[in-house]
Amino acid sequence: MTDYCDKRDLYDFGLPRGGIANPARVLHPQGTADPTADTLTLNQHGFETGDLVRFRAEGGGSMAAPLVAYTPYYAIEVDQDRFQVSATIGGPAIDLTTAGSRMVVWFELPVDASITYASRQLDEMLPAHVVPLELPVPPIVKMTAAELAVAKLASRGGFQSKSLGDVLVEAQKRMTRWAAGVPLRGENAPTTHTNNAAVAAAALDPTGWKCFGGI
User: Which of 29, 62, 177, 211 would you call most buried, defined as having the most Cβ atoms within 10 angstroms of its Cβ?
Assistant: First the structure.
């Protein structure tokens, strides 16, 4: 299915560059790893197996060997507070040989998934005669999809100034107003008549009085 905006649209419709940072936290304890168990500890880390993560060391710190700063790794969930990492999705856990210090782990916000989420939310808001939208996507729909995607990202990263629920309500109101003026089209449009309203009016007024102000 078509997504109604792209990453550039997020910035074109009001998101400052760097306005939503990738969430990062210091590992425990003191930013170290556990070489004995090849695990990293972070309370309530929230990672699922396969999630992409990266590491760096804060000033004066060091990376746990053989991990390399800013390199993408894939989380392997051990429990809610501990995880391992692999070099490839589904690969074995990396054998950690040193503990490192003051290490920070972060994950990249799911921009593509948030755009798809926003697009499917708009599909649910729009009436059947509008969906599926024809390309090019109307600017009002693109703008609303971008705003929803930003709100979703902000809620994931804990940066929102307005709740995702509030943004959804505003989007619903906007789409309702916009869709009211959109003609029948797409796969849901009737094949025999292009304007059901006009056909119905003609059937109810066979003598044509209404066009002269009749009732």
Answer: 62
